[in-house]
Structures are given as structure tokens and as C-alpha cells.
Amino acid sequence: MEVMEAIRGRRSIREYENTPVPMEHIRLILEAARWAPSGYNKQPWKFIVLQDRDLKARMVEEVRTKLEEISQWPAVKGKASGVKAMLPGFIVFNHAPIAIAVLHSDYSAPMDEILKKKGLSFEERFNLRAAPGIQSVAAAIENMLLAATSLGYGTCYGTGCLIAREGLEKVLGIKPPWRLIAIVPVGVPKKVPRAPKRKPLEEVSEIR
């Protein structure tokens, strides 16, 4: 499959067959992520392949518990059922034969150290640097999605579950400097939705 074909064919899949994903394909998907560009070649990423059903069930419970907690907040008064209804969309990782937890670590290049020594706040540093570490990991995730698509699998760039990040990190044994940034389910799609509409190229680009 050519690159543009994979780009245009990628979909966010939320329902999967029980077909196993062979280790050979898992390694190819991770290899694609490993070759993503990163600032100063820091490669601030790590990947945990989740296969164990009991482990994923514990993760689901963490998300469920967090949404239950949020539904009790005064600010959610009258909308508790809507908050609880978010659960299926937040636990798509539980519906696929495997899911890949993506971690990132603190990113620090020479300019970052200079800005820290200057005493700038996180917001001030963000305005000057725009989180190159997170952008690097996002590039790795996109490589992962496209590699999976080229192999005939569906994926979903899952971040909704991070509402329970603290609990999920505890279940997965993730400790500083690492932090969970996404969970990507991978599997054979039960169905592939039609491509969503895209804005015309002329609307989103310009040549100067």
C-alpha cells in the first residue's frame, strides 16, 4: 500500500473482530513509530503492548470510576447521565485484540534549559517552544496508525481515557519521568466507515 493510499484509507475504528494480531505485525507497527522524527532526536517515547484481558478490564474500571466521580461534581448537576454515557468512547482499547499504550518523557533541549533558567512559567515556555516533545510523540503515533492501516488493521487515536490517567498509570506501573499520552487499539475492523468530509485544500492552505 502506498503512503497516500494509507493516509486516505485510515479511519478511526471503534469495533473490532477477535482476530489476533501476530507479533510480526505488532513489531512492524512499533518499528514505524520508532522511526518518527523527534526534536534533537530525543525519541521521548515508549510503547506498552496490551493483550491481557484482565489488565484491560482493570483499566476499564479505572475509567468507569473516574467518570462516576466526575458525574457527582456540582458543576455536572443535571448532566450526570451524559458524563457516564462517555464510557464506551473512552474504552475503545478494550474492544480490540491488542492496544498500544504510548508514553512520553520530559523533553529538554538546550533552549528549554535556557528558558527554565530564565525562570519562565510553563505557559511562557509553551508559547516559545510549543511542546516539541509532545509533538514528537504525536508523529510517532501517526506513523503507527499508517503502518497499521497498510497492514489491513484499524486503529483509533485514543485520548479520552486519559481522564483517568492517574489510575491507568498506576495499573500499568508507569512512573516518572514517563507519562501516558494515548492508548491506540489495533485490530481487524468489524466495519470501515465512509471517509468523513474534509475541508477543501484551498480553504486550509495558502501559498505566499
Features:
alpha+beta; four-stranded antiparallel beta sheet; 4 strands; 208 residues; NADH Oxidase; single chain
The CATH topology turns out to be NADH Oxidase
* Residue windows where pLDDT falls under 50 for at least 5 positions: none
**Distance between the amino and carboxyl termini:** 33 Å
Strand order in the largest sheet: 1-2-4-3
What is the overall silhouette? globular
Proportion in β-strands? 5-15%
Mean pLDDT: 96
- Based on CA atoms alone, the radius of gyration comes out at 19 Å
CATH superfamily: NADH Oxidase
Pattern of helices and strands: HHEHHHEHHHEHEH
Query: Please, how many domains?
Result: 1
CATH architecture: 3-Layer(aba) Sandwich
Class from helix and strand fractions: alpha+beta
Helical stretch count?
10
Total DSSP E strands: 4
Q: Which CATH C-level class is it?
A: Alpha Beta
Largest beta-sheet characterization: 4 strands, antiparallel
Helix content: 40-55%
How does this structure look, described?
- This protein is an alpha+beta fold and 208 residues long.
- It is built from 10 helices and 4 strands; from the N terminus they run ααβαααβαααβαβα.
- It has helices at residues 3-9, 23-34, 53-71, 80-84, 87-90, 110-118, 122-129, 132-150, 165-172, 201-204, and strands at residues 45-50, 98-105, 154-155, 178-187.
- The longest helix is centred in the first third of the chain and has 19 residues, at 53-71.
- It has a 4-stranded antiparallel β-sheet with strand order 1-2-4-3, with helices on both faces.
- 46% of the residues lie in helices and 12% in strands.
